[in-house]
Amino acid sequence: MLYVLALFLPPLSILLIGRWFVALVTLVIWIPAIIFSGGLTHPMFIVLAWILIFQRGADRRAGL
Question: How many CB atoms lie within 10 A of CB 60?
Answer without folding.
Answer: 9
